[in-house]
Design brief:
It is built from 2 helices and no strands. The protein is mostly helical and about 40 residues long.
């Protein structure tokens, strides 16, 4: 069970980063001017 929980947690973290990247890319497409303010 311990190994399964570890795998599940790792998968969740990976999915979270993929989701965050999608949201970030969508945000830049919607607000390109934000990128130019850096």
């Amino acid at each position: 069970y311990k190994g399964y929980a570890s795998e599940a947690k790792h998968g969740t973290v990976r999915d979270f980063y993929v989701f965050k990247e999608k949201v970030y890319n969508h945000f830049l497409e919607s607000h390109p001017e934000m990128l130019l303010r850096k």
